[in-house]
Each structure stands twice: as C-alpha cells, then as structure tokens.
Sequence to fold (238 residues):
Amino acid sequence: MTETAPGALVHPGEVPTWLRDLVDVAGDLDYRTFTRFSPPADADVRDAAVLVLFGEDDTNGANGSAPDPDVLLLRRADDMPSHPGQVAFPGGGADDGDTGPVDTALREAVEETGLERDGVRPVALLPQLYVPVSGFAVTPVLAHWEQPSAVHAVDQRETSAVARVKLADLANPANRFLVEREEGGWRGPAFVVNGLFVWGFTAGLLSVLLSLGGWEQEWDTTDVRPLRRALADHGELL
Fold:
C-alpha cells in the first residue's frame, strides 16, 4: 500500500462556492472519518483510486438561479465477477504506469465512461480507505467537472449505465435509508435515486461527503432494511 497525503490540490477559493467547504476540510480528515477498517499489517493490499467528479448543469446559475451540482456514478454489469450490478464511482486498481491516484482515477474514468480528461480538474485527495472485501486501499480523488463532456458505458461487459446524479436527490430524505446484513452485523447507508440502488463503499463515502459538503438534510436513520430484501426490491444481485 502506497500512502498519499490527503488534502486540497487547489486553493478552496479556486473552486465554485458550493464545493469550497469540502475542499477546505480535505486536509483535516483521516480514514476514521469514513470507515472503521484499517489494513492489517500483513495484508496483501493493492492501491486503487476512484474519481468523485462533481459537476453542474451548463444552465445552472443563469438568471441568478442557485447551482444544482451533481456527481458522476456508474452501474457495474450484472455478470461482472466482483461487485456485480453495484453502483460505484469510476475507478479501479492502479497500473504500473500510473503516476499516482489522480492518474489512476482519471485513466479509469476515461476507460469506463468516455469522459474528456482535459475537462476535469482534480481538487483534493481524501485519505486511503481500506476495503476488506476486495483488499484494495482506495484513494478518493475529488474533482470539479469544469468542462463537462458526454459520458456513456464504454464497455457493456463491464458497465451497464453511467449517470450524473444530483446531490439534492441524494440528500433528499425520501431517497435515504440504512441496510444491514442478517449475518455479520454490518450496517450502512443506502440511496435509491434515478433508478439506482447505491449501497456499500460508494454509499458510505457519499453519505459522509454530503455531510462534509453541507448538503445533508435530516433523514430517518431508524429506517433499517435487510440488505437481501433491498437488493431484491431494486433488482440487484447479491
């Protein structure tokens, strides 16, 4: 595992007002803000990165309207050998030729969604987060989509859909609940938005980012649903 110091890559004043709070706190966070898991000392851990890409519609801000930011998500193909059907951020494992987590996240995003790399400005790195189920140490790379480009599922064998999901829809209390496994006692946040069921690592990261960015609304944290039932209700694979 290669440690990369978290923190802002740009001055907070250089990003849109709605994104400044998140960039401003990036250097004050450690992995415990997001997860209780730390890699065992003898674990065989592989570096990975995901692109948390925030954008806004080209018409936002016109005529004095408030910005309506969104985040880029994708849905993995149902027959993928790992995490089939799950909603995720673009990203994946580091390649030998990558220069660091920013390079990994951008390369994977281009390969998966077809976005134009030049229109994306990385703005902050979050701490590496260990994902026990996959053995990855994942660095979330926060970025601003300065010049949005068309995106699509580049390879249907790996990705079934790509979507820009509004933060307001994720923060809507009607779209949020908790899921838990009957075995093992794991519990975590979940979202149902735009026909996507978001849970696991992605939902956990989104939940914290909504709070840190100042977008979170009060929601019912007593609404806890069995994961197996939620997966069945929303057409996902277990």
